[in-house]
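Allow me, if you will, to draw on your knowledge of protein folds for a short while. I have a record of one protein: its chain in single-letter code and its fold written as discrete structure tokens. I remain grateful for any guidance, and I place the record below:
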Amino acid sequence: MSSRNTHGQLVITVDGPSGSGKGTICRLLAHKLGWVLLDSGALYRLTALAASNHGVELDDVEALQVLAEHLDVRFVTDRHGEGTQVLLEGEDVTHAIRSEQVGNHASKVASIGPVRQALLRRQRDFATEPGLVADGRDMGTVVFPEAALKIYLDASAEVRAERRYKQLIDKGLSASLEGILHDIKARDERDMNREVAPLRPTQGAVMLDSTTLSIEDVLTKVLEEARHKGLR
């Protein structure tokens, strides 16, 4: 099989559950390679936030599909690869879409088939020169099944909850470790057992467990896999 997808572009996918480190790894990897970055989870969070902004209920499938098809969104990455600004309808929602509430709503929105289908083409359009690093839950299984390199990044629910708890505390926000762990387990259950594009490792994916690894360790391992595939 060719290392390029059907659009002729090189793609590396990184799938895995919430809190496994996908976002950080993908941002660093895209910066290191000089490739385009796709945070697919942000698209579902943006759809959920747009629904809230426009008074659309999460069980209104038709209205959610229309929102997903017409999302006015832009991703602006800084030149140092340290962060990405997310704009929804011209408003900076970078931090707003990372709240636990929006994350839980996004997980529910992501289980709706018509919404996933509406966002599928938009995600594939990110595959441009010189290559794409795609972060999500079904990047390797559904969106880019012909990706040159597929990574499945995991970590224990307890460690993922601790990471999220620390992030919130460091930002000066109140948080409950027990509550976060409960939400993560519920989200895992929902993501892994949904009828449409359930979260699971795809065939041929490189399995990495970040439970006891630093971000630098994980990045080194992913870059080694990329080198083996001739992507560096």
The beta strands are 11-15, 36-39, 73-77, 84-88, 91-92, 132-136, 149-154, 206-209.
